[in-house]
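User: Please predict the structure of the protein below. I'd like the answer in structure-token form so I can feed it into my own downstream comparison script.

Assistant: Understood. Taking the following sequence of 252 residues as input:
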Amino acid sequence: MTLNITPMRDRAGVLTGYVVAAYDATERKQAEEKLSEWQQFLQRLTDTSPSVIVVCDLEAQRSVFTNRAVASVLGYSDEEITVLGDKVAPTLMHPEERLRDSEATFRAMFNVSSVGKVEADPATGRFTRVNAAMCELAGYTEAELLACTFFDITHPDERDQGREKVRQLVAGVASDYDAEKRYMRKDGSGVWVRVTANVVRDNEGRPVRNTAVIQTIDATKRSEIVLRESEARYRMAIRACSFGTWETDLAS
């Protein structure tokens, strides 16, 4: 039997009585005892395992179960594991395992993207990693792009300028690289892109790799070109006329 006793007070806070609620808690107690028995059985069973076993509640960000190997193999107490919360898995990983896990996450984010992403050798500009979106944008296979440099697929008229900007970026003269330029696709057609690049450096500041995000802006740039050409033809026609013209702002 479980009793809940709630005091009753008047508006002045004076105790006037109690509300007593009683209910049969037999089933709940039996369920708790059964759960405790299963937990003890599970603990005895997993404690015989040489493997480290940790069960985490990701929503509550805490561990809810550990076996004896956590302390005997890794040297962590139950309290220390609890404090680690949702960071318990990466903390318990061997550094090589953490590196592999981090690389797997990076590869997934790198490849599953609607924009082109590349990595390149900072010394030569040769691509060392490209995603599927970049291959589609440039019209090359992954293997073909990995044999190219940034400059190989840049429009000839813009290669010298692009090479100088990359040199400044790698040298640390420029903090980033953001430019609109033309790439040459494998089929010989040009495509306008916006390239945003930076340099990943080691702890001593030496460049390790260039990274870049490439977005196609071809439709926008071609619309701008058509508009400029149309305006130029309009002004040429006006100059050719013998009568006067003017423009006015109707709103004002």
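That's the full token string. The radius of gyration is 34 Å.
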